[in-house]
Design a protein that fits this description.
The complex is a heterodimer of chains A (113) and B (113). Chain A is an all-beta fold and 113 residues long. Chain A contains no helices and eleven strands. The chains are: A mainly beta (113), B mainly beta (113).
C-alpha cells in the first residue's frame, strides 16, 4: 500500500550546522503533513505541520518545505544543537483522512559537539 | 492546556497473561483517541482509533482490543498476550472535528516473556 518513506535512516551533523531531513510520500491525495521528534523512550513530540496549499512554513529554528510535484517533504533545522538529537518522523494524513496518519520509519539525527 | 497520560510506564508480562493499558486525556472534550504500537527501531503502526464513546475502529487484526468507556479514557486490552505483542505502545489524541494533528502520550514499554 501507499506509505510515507524516508531517504536516509541516519544523519550525523556538527553542532551549529544546519540539518535537513527528507521524506517522500506516495499518496497524492494527502493534504496534511507533520513532523514529529521522538527522543529515546518518549512519545513523539509535534514539531511543525504544513497543509498542501502551502509550500513552506517556518517555526522556531525549523522550516518545513513541501514539494507536491515530486511528493517530497523536508525538515530543516537551523543551528542544530545537541538537544536536537532524536528520531524524526514525517507523517501524512493518508490521502485526506480526517483521522489517520501514515508515518515514515524515521531518521535518527545525531548532533556531534 | 491539554495533557495526556498513560500507565503503566513499563510492564513485563508472561505469555498468555492478560493486558490492560490505560490512557486518559485532560483539558479537552470529545477528542479523537488512538492506540499505536512501535516496534524497536521502527515506525508507528496504528492499532485502533475512536471518535467517540463506545466507537472503536480497528486497523490491524490481532489479539488486542480497545474500549472507550468514558469520553477521555481509552483502554487497550488483551486476553492472552503473545511474544509478538512486545513493543512501545503509544496513545494519542486529536481535537474533534477532523483536525489532523495528533498529540502523543509518554508511552508504555511492554515486554512479553
Amino acid at each position: 500500500g501507499e506509505s510515507v518513506g524516508l531517504h536516509l535512516p541516519t544523519l550525523s551533523v556538527q553542532e551549529g550546522d544546519n540539518s535537513i531531513i527528507n521524506c517522500a510520500y506516495s499518496n497524492s491525495a494527502s493534504d496534511y503533513f507533520i513532523w514529529y521528534k521522538q527522543e529515546s523512550g518518549k512519545g513523539p513530540q509535534f514539531i511543525i505541520d504544513i497543509r498542501s496549499n502551502m509550500d513552506k512554513r517556518q517555526g522556531q529554528r525549523v522550516t518545513v518545505l513541501l514539494n507536491k510535484t515530486v511528493k517530497h517533504l523536508s525538515l530543516q533545522i537551523a543551528a542544530t544543537q545537541p538537544g536536537d538529537s532524536a528520531v524524526y518522523f514525517c507523517a501524512d494524513n493518508s490521502g485526506g483522512s480526517n483521522y489517520k496518519l501514515t508515518f515514515g520509519k524515521g531518521t535518527l539525527l545525531t548532533v556531534n559537539p | 492546556s491539554q495533557t495526556i497520560h498513560q500507565w503503566p510506564a513499563t510492564l513485563v508480562q508472561p505469555v498468555g497473561s492478560p493486558l490492560s493499558l490505560e490512557c486518559t486525556v485532560e483539558g479537552t472534550s470529545n477528542p479523537n483517541l488512538y492506540w499505536y504500537r512501535q516496534a524497536a527501531g521502527r515506525g508507528l503502526q496504528l492499532l485502533f482509533y475512536s471518535v467517540g464513546i463506545g466507537q472503536i475502529s480497528s486497523e490491524v487484526p490481532q489479539n488486542l482490543s480497545a474500549s472507550r468507556p468514558q469520553d477521555r479514557q481509552f483502554i487497550l486490552s488483551s486476553k492472552k498476550l503473545l511474544l509478538s505483542d512486545s513493543g512501545f505502545y503509544l496513545c494519542a489524541w486529536s481535537p474533534t472535528g477532523g483536525t489532523d494533528t495528533q498529540y502523543f502520550g509518554p508511552g508504555t514499554r511492554l515486554t512479553v516473556l
